[in-house]
Every structure is written in C-alpha cells, then in structure tokens.
Amino acid sequence: MLWAIWKNRNSLLYAETQESIAVLMRRALEEASLWYEVNKGASGEKQTALHMGVPQSWTPPAQGMVKCNFHVNWRSDRYHVGGAWITRNYNGEVGMHARDALTPKSDKLSADMYCLLWVLKSLRDLRIEEVHIGTDSQELYDAIQKPYRWPRYRGLLQQITTICSEFVGIEFEVESVQSNKVAREISRSVLRDGRFQSYLALGLKVLW
Q: Start and end of every RNase H type-1 domain (predicted)?
C-alpha cells in the first residue's frame, strides 16, 4: 500500500496528475490480497497433501529453476479471456507476475493454449532459461504431452513446441485448484472486476 501511495505522490509532483482515492485504494488492496495469498500458501508448503497425485498446496521447483504458475479464466466465446501468471523460486519468493485480457476464444482449450503461448513468450523475453510450468488444466497438459491425439489444435501445439525448444530446460506439471489459487485469483479479476488493463510486476509491486 505504501508503494501505491508513493507512486501516486510522484505522479502529482512530476506529471501534475493524481488518481482518485478510490482507484488508489483498490490497487493497494489488490496488492495486499496478492501478498496475503502468496504468504499463506508458502506457510503451508511443509504440509502438502496429495489427492489423486496432484499436490494440494504449492510445491517449489528444483533448485536453480523458476516455477511459473498460470491460469486462464474462460467463460464463453463471447467474452474476453482473463490470463495471469506468477513466478517463484525455490524458496517460494515471488519474482514476476502479470495479467492480461486476451481476445475471445472458441473454447477453453484454445484459450489455455493461447495463454500458454503468451506466458512462454513473456518468460523468454525476460531471459528466463529454465522453468517449471504449473497449470490446473489437465486437458492442456495431456495435449502437450501427446499432441498427436489433438489434431484440431495442431497449429497451436506446434507453436508451443517451437517456443519450448528455446528454453534450456522446461517442465510441465498439473496443479490443483488450491495450489494454483494465486494465478487463478489474478486471472479471474479480468472479467469479475473489469480489469482489462494488462500489467507486469516485479515482486509484489504492481506496475499499473
């Protein structure tokens, strides 16, 4: 919240603009909510429960790798798609997180694939070379592992394969709704709260 207040002060001093108190508070509360979810998840990592082989709380990547959780909020082919990703290291410390509103897609799996392409391109441009990707879409995971079973999505899967080859190391993992809750919450804010403006943030400081 202090970061948001400080930035608003600088806007007033240097750009002669000032956002409304309501907007300032909304953004500060969103950042506080994200901080709470991340730290609440980190505190329970040692008591990870398993259900059908899927971890119920966030699990760290191998040492030296970055873990990127992402989620896609798709309602129908008439609405925009909310997408979000967040990276954390071996110690659970947040690196970057981002949100965007993608154009409407015909079905959930298409939305998942387009969002994954956005995630991979973002990580590549940020020069992350080794990454562990976590998704709560079992269908997307299956399509990546056995693309020949999904001929309808051949073009998108080829694009995913191509960009994956640009990383030194990349792995995919299926997450539970609970272990992927931070990315889910950010992505849902696009349609739920009408937050169509994209952002990229370092740590827990949102670059609005």
A: 69-188
- Three-state secondary structure call for residue 148: helix
CATH annotation of 56-202? 3.30.420.10
* pLDDT tens by residue, 121-176: 999 999 999 999 999 999 999 999 999 999 999 999 999 999 999 999 999 999 99
Q: Per the structure block, which two tokens stand in for 175?
A: 């997450």
Backbone angles phi, psi at 173, to 5 degrees: -145, 140
For 23-33, b/e burial (b = at least 16 CB within 10 A) is: ebeebbebbee
Q: Are 160 and 114 within 8 A, CB to CB? A: no
Alpha-helical regions (H) of the chain: 2-14, 21-43, 108-125, 138-145, 154-164, 181-193
The single-letter DSSP state of residue 201 is E
pTM: 0.75
